[in-house]
């Protein structure tokens, strides 16, 4: 069909690390839809326009942001592994220090990225950086 693109790429599976899926499902429905759509784009190898690099963990780690009624919600995920997308953390930003993300959220993302790497290597059998 003219003007329509047919998706020929298979979706990568999404793996939810820790409580990330439960945390996403507890968010307001419009936020859940917005963040879920961005994760869906990542599953097909794309990058949603609202996705931006997560600072501090190197390439392949992104965050998407959704706002609703003055509140900010985020999902951090990695596409670092060729066969999967790992959702590392979904949270409402409540940092007391302005725009900076709370230290415990940053540390949780780092720890969950390590857990994702361990899981991927155990199930895929390949070493990653």
SSE map:
Blueprint: E1 14-16, H1 20-25, H2 29-43, E2 51-53, E3 61-68, E4 71-78, E5 85-92, H3 103-124
Parallel strand pairs: 1-5
Antiparallel strand pairs: 2-3, 3-4, 4-5
Defining traits:
129 residues, alpha+beta, YaeB-like fold, 3 helices, globular
Outline the structure in words.
By secondary structure, the chain is of the alpha+beta class. Helices cover 33% and strands 23% of the residues. It contains three helices and five strands; from the N terminus they run βααββββα. It has helices at residues 20-25, 29-43, 103-124, and strands at 14-16, 51-53, 61-68, 71-78, 85-92. Strands 1-5-4-3-2 form a five-stranded mixed sheet, with helices on both faces. The mean pLDDT is 87.
Say which CATH homologous superfamily is assigned. RelE-like
What would you call the shape? globular
- CATH topology value: YaeB-like fold
Number of domains: 1
Q: How much beta, percentage-wise?
A: 15-25%
Structural category = alpha+beta
Q: What is the class in the CATH system?
A: Alpha Beta
Structure in a nutshell:
The protein is of the alpha+beta class and 129 residues long. It has helices at 20-25, 29-43, 103-124; strands at residues 14-16, 51-53, 61-68, 71-78, 85-92.
